[in-house]
């Protein structure tokens, strides 16, 4: 028997959204994964590093899933609810979790790390990444690409201007990295399929990924959510996720 709109809304509006674990969406939404396997790549790079920094680590879930961490492993996080969550799973692995502002400067000395990594950074502070990397050190990042899940964004906000849809392009990532003095060694881009099966999944997603529909609340978008609930009776809401993989190297070393 199909669940009611009120039940789905009440559940999704009350479930905790700290961390970067999306397992609550199992059976309620699906997201196609990029072919490159970011966590596997991260593990291979960390296994060769003596010191590494994971920027905007979220709840630490991705980093904690890597088999071997370097002897000096540091992670930063700026969203207060995520800091204790990341610390709880990373400190037993020997990693240090640092609460920061999410803005430059990074609280580390120049040339401090062999590797800097970041999965889905909100903003990439390229000059800071270049500064804290030692000569010969590398940067690895999976980033959200242009107009990602914009079918959902525009369902709530209406059509977005071209300059908003075009942000976070692979070409811009390359230009920004090179402007900071880094050499881009790998750059990939993929479009992937995402499906939402009930309105609760959409509410949870927008509560967790807060920059998709800024200021989202159930009350503010209740009529639109009710329309979406009715729409979902005929099948999933399909959106296109875009992802960028970029690796770069600091010259020298």
Automatic annotation (TrEMBL):
<dbReference type="InterPro" id="IPR029063">
    <property type="entry name" value="SAM-dependent_MTases_sf"/>
</dbReference>
<dbReference type="InterPro" id="IPR052939">
    <property type="entry name" value="23S_rRNA_MeTrnsfrase_RlmA"/>
</dbReference>
<keyword id="KW-0808">Transferase</keyword>
<dbReference type="InterPro" id="IPR013216">
    <property type="entry name" value="Methyltransf_11"/>
</dbReference>
<feature type="domain" description="Methyltransferase type 11">
    <location>
        <begin position="53"/>
        <end position="137"/>
    </location>
</feature>
<dbReference type="Pfam" id="PF08241">
    <property type="entry name" value="Methyltransf_11"/>
</dbReference>
<protein>
    <submittedName>
        <fullName>Class I SAM-dependent methyltransferase</fullName>
    </submittedName>
</protein>
<dbReference type="GO" id="GO:0032259">
    <property type="term" value="P:methylation"/>
</dbReference>
<keyword id="KW-0489">Methyltransferase</keyword>
<dbReference type="GO" id="GO:0008757">
    <property type="term" value="F:S-adenosylmethionine-dependent methyltransferase activity"/>
</dbReference>
